[in-house]
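Ticket #4471: structure export looks truncated?
Reporter: QA, pipeline team
Priority: medium

Steps to reproduce: submit the single chain below to the structure queue and open the exported record.
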Amino acid sequence: MFEYSGKTNLIQWRARDYILNDVSEPELYRDFFPYDEIPKVAFNHRIVPINMPDEIWITDTTFRDGQQSITPYTTEQIVKIFEYLHRLSGPKGIVRQSEFFLYSKKDRDAVYRCLEKGYEFPEVTSWIRASKKDFELVKELGMKESGILVSCSDYHIFLKMKMTRRQAIDHYIGIVRECIESGVRPRCHLEDITRADYYGFVVPFAIELMALSREAKIPIKIITGNWMTNIIKYVNIIFLPLKTTCNLFNLLHYRFLLLRNNKNGLCLLYIFLDCLFRLSKPVLIILLFQDRLRDCVPSLRNMRLYLFLTNQHIFSNSF
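Actual output as written to the record:
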């Protein structure tokens, strides 16, 4: 199928829609992740084009991911940080939204307190698992938008959720549909897509989400998340499903409403490594409210072990 792109001013080929591959056994990519050897990295020498969006903004996860790396914030601390984020955002909404857990009374109290501020930016949004019990909290607090965890790899679908791919999609779609019917804007967090069957599950699932969006005439946001990538500097030539830039480009190519990829903690590790081994100078890394620290710390610990074994004692025991 050919179509004209108003963004590139080119006639482009658009692949046919992909159909769900509802396998009977999980695809665990043992070629990439064997148990008896180190993980493999395959190269296909395909360059991913630069594809900048028309608008860029920040979605803050300090009160969600940021609380998983340190002692959880008090309600007062959450409200104070939220005020700082409002000041940083400015009138144009550079910090567009902030994501909150709803599970504890402390978190719910913080949501009420932040909503009472009446700020346009950042908008207070929630983040839940794909369960009816979690969604009841969203309705109870009167949230306008909520993130929904929709894990995509067979590690999660088969081994944790004990479902088939078709059952997982039906389950996810059911929660998203309930959001729409309740007047809540759904934001689907496609987690673990770097270990998922990209064309056999991720793209077909996104196609079904967009079909639901057209039917309901309500935008459904798709958020990508990765856990197993950003570790190789040859960023443009890593084979799917591992490479996040390939995943992002392909989702954009299918014109899904893609918001962001937010698992960038290992970028801090690169800065750290470059300073250590190229500049040989002291390094100061400032993490805003500890956000994304939990993605980075395990790798820093591994790096510390490596440097210890090579007799490069440059770390304190604080890691």
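Status: closed, not a bug. The export was complete when the record was re-opened. Leaving a note from the reviewer for reference: Strands lie at 2-5, 10-13, 58-60, 95-100, 123-129, 145-151, 185-191, 221-224, 258-261.
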